[in-house]
Amino acid sequence: MSPDEDSSRWDGFDFRDGDIVISSRSKHGTTWLQMITLLLIHQTPDLPAPLGRLSPWLDHVVEPRDTVTACLAAQAHRRVIKTHTPLDGIPVDPRVTYLVVARHPLDAAVSLYHQAANIDRDRLHRLSGAEAAVTSAFRPPLREWLVTWIDRDPDPRDELDSLPGVMWHLSDAWARRTSDHVALVHYADLAADLDGLMHRLADRLGIAVPSDMWTVLVHAATFDQMRARAERLVPDPVGVLRDPVAFFRRGTSADGTALLSPAQLERYRRRTAALASPDLLSWLHR
User: 115 lies in a domain?
Assistant: First the structure.
């Protein structure tokens, strides 16, 4: 995992009946799915608190664990908890619904590249207590970086935002997809069929929404509306991001595939075929 994440912070966490855990890797649509879920629960576009406080990231070490768990313990409404840890690294409780959001890995990687420039690394290291990494000021152009990202082969447990790490996370969730407690969501549906996805998600979570509220809630969940309210909706309660608006960069698909040549795309297909099952890849790349 990254130095600012610690999955052991889940140990002994006091779950409640009806809790919702959203699990994904970085830039896969976590915040978008948090927003949708919170809108369904609170049934108003004006959430009662900033998104990062309503749905905190439990295993992010920039805040003390006791602070985060106290925030969650004080919530009287149905809780939504964020994690970037795969489900095999956190407790799986039968009272909880686990939502795993997946995105085309190339698109997530492009977003990750841009996100890296928006993080205040000095502040992140101070808050997390991690030793600052020695890095070069030079960053390769996006296409060059993306090809390297495809080819690299680190241990997925050490680098969960690598291609092997992403496939580890999604393969574990895919194997659990028939469970009553696990649901997979595809990023493409957030953009292409937001209304339909929100209806399906409400049914899965057992949430009844008055018919006259749907248009308002779906509108509030659009990417453009989230970007317009970035100061309140960016998941950054401690100020690690340089620009909240830049966090909501585009919200589109196919950025990654458009960057690569046919030969490079074939390299990507060979890599993913060695890392995940054909049925998962068919769903993921649709």
Answer: yes
Sign for the CA dihedral angle at 172, 178, 184, 188 comes to positive
The length of the chain, given as a count of residues: 286
Domain residue limits at 144: 7-284
| Active-site position among 84, 104, 169, 186 | 84
CA quadruple 176, 163, 135, 52: dihedral sign:
negative
Per-residue model confidence as pLDDT tens digits over 92-108:
999 999 999 999 999 99
Closest to 272 (Cα-Cα) out of 115, 158, 165: 165
Nearest CA-CA partner of 17 in 100, 93, 98: 93
Kindly report the pTM of this predicted structure: 0.90
Task: Write down the pLDDT at residue 134.
Answer: 47
CB-CB contact of 56 with 237 (8 Å): yes
Residue 1 lies in a domain: no
User: Is 84 annotated as catalytic?
Assistant: yes
Q: What percent of the chain has pLDDT over 90?
A: 72
Residue 6, by phi and psi: left (phi above 0), alpha (psi -120 to 50) or beta?
A: beta
Q: What is the CATH number of the domain that holds 172?
A: 3.40.50.300
Examine residue 135 and state whether it is found in any structural domain, yes or no: yes
